[in-house]
Amino acid sequence: MQVLEQSVVVFSQNYLPLCRINIKRAIVLLLTDKAQPLGFTTEGGWRVHSPSLVIDVPKHIRLTVTSNERMWKVPPVNRREVLRRDHHTCQYCGGGKHLTLDHVMPRSRGGSHTWDNLVTACEKCNSRKGDVWRQAASRLRTLFEAGMQLRTKPKAPIHPAISFAEQFWIDMQGSLE
């Protein structure tokens, strides 16, 4: 892979991994003193040459400036956001066609219209779980009663930087073992 196609991990001032940026952006941050190199790993970075300058770009940099990031809010519970969270796939069979929303615990049985009770389901799985042919609509089935299982546990989306940080530390722990 070419040097300019590499990416660098950016840390906040208090060492929280924020994101991954391309090496060109990292060079700009380093040259404008908005970031400083970090030496987390024994692996070196990359040496980039220009006609008048040679710069060593590390694999990790730390921002030296504070940014007034706008507040991130949990998005509202609606069809578009639930589909986005579930990657436009049925959470029962993994299919991607004729998608609907399904309440894991039916609302008629006390379930709520919240992030942890809504999933994306294809029409086939949704009707199989509901089993409207055998039961009255007011007596929809739970997952256990339908003998079905979710592929992932539904939960509210989290801040992208937190998601990145979690994955970063999992990857770092895996590389140390």
Overview of the molecule:
The chain is of the alpha+beta class and 177 residues long. It has helices at residues 23-31, 79-85, 123-130, 143-146, 160-176, and strands at 7-11, 17-22, 35-38, 46-49, 54-57, 60-63, 99-103, 118-122. The strands form three sheets. Strands 2-1-6-3 form a four-stranded mixed sheet. It has a two-stranded antiparallel sheet with strand order 4-5.
Index terms:
25% helix, four-stranded mixed β-sheet, 21% strand
Stretches where pLDDT is under 50 for at least 5 consecutive residues are none
Question: What is the averaged pLDDT score?
Answer: 85
How many angstroms does the end-to-end distance come to?
25 Å
- The 3D shape can be described as elongated
**Main structural class:** alpha+beta
Main-sheet strand order equals 2-1-6-3
**CA gyration radius, whole angstroms:** 23 Å
Oligomer: single chain
Total of helices: 5
Biggest sheet details: 4 strands, mixed
Helix content: 25-40%
Strand content: 15-25%
Question: What is the number of strand segments?
Answer: 8
Describe what is shown at a glance.
With 177 residues, the protein is of the alpha+beta class.
Sequence-ordered SSE layout with sheet pairings:
Elements lengths: L6 E5 L5 E6 H9 L3 E4 L7 E4 L4 E4 L2 E4 L15 H7 L13 E5 L14 E5 H8 L12 H4 L13 H17 L1
Parallel strand pairs: 1-6
Antiparallel strand pairs: 1-2, 3-6, 4-5, 7-8
